[in-house]
Amino acid sequence: MTPPRSPDVTVVVMSRNRREDLLSSLPRHEAPVVLVDNASTDGTVEAVRAALPAVTVVPMPENRGSYARTVGVRRAGTEFVAFADDDSWWAPGDLARAAAVMRAHPRLAVLNARILVGPEERLDPVCAEMAASPLGTPPDLPGPALLGFVACGAMVRTEAFLAAGGFDRVVRFPGEEERLALDLAAAGWGMAYVDSVTVHHHPSPRRHAPEQRRTAIWRSRVLTALMRRPLPEVFGVVVAALRGGAPERQGLLRALPDVPAALRLRRPVPAGVREQLRVLAGSP
Question: What's the pTM value of the predicted model, to 2 decimals?
């Protein structure tokens, strides 16, 4: 039986130098696909166009990180967009199922699916954290409320995503979800974890070393704090980076060139969102 398809969903994939992963994962998507390629040098664009002509390929002139997803959402033109990485895909029928949940909950801007990792299908630990969100389950959301999400396992409402600025050119990748989640919450949109919808993630062997990823995440954390947190909290993030290990301090250093751009976009979140952040942090 062919799984149901949803005419109002596009899958947006960003990638860089993961040609073989893409050729394996792209055919699994049960919706039109927009692939935004971050200046790959391994022949990704040509290979995908030759093997999968139905995929819309958007080559970027340089690596712009997660801003590529924003380019893809603008190109998609559908009410909802499901994100996938080059090594992830939505379970059969679940794109349509997730879109139905989005339609039934008009305040929902981001649906985060259950993410199963690797051939052994183990639950991503972050999903257990989302399921136990201390923010509870508001009556107008389909699951526990969130103040963040995992992009490769998320479906977004295009209207809300673009109104909040999408993924930006400053934070880039990884850790790009935090600033967007804060802006969506500030605008009154909801985000929720929905355990009945599944994304499969089989991590590519072509990955950065853990220390490099920590450095990149701390760069994003510092820049996001500058853009959206009150100054005392910005100071706290900087101190935490300085007191951390070498990757944290390197992340702080890597953030410095982008500080002017972050300050130009500075817009601290309102008190209601700060209260949610305190609840998530376990503060009284």
Answer: 0.94
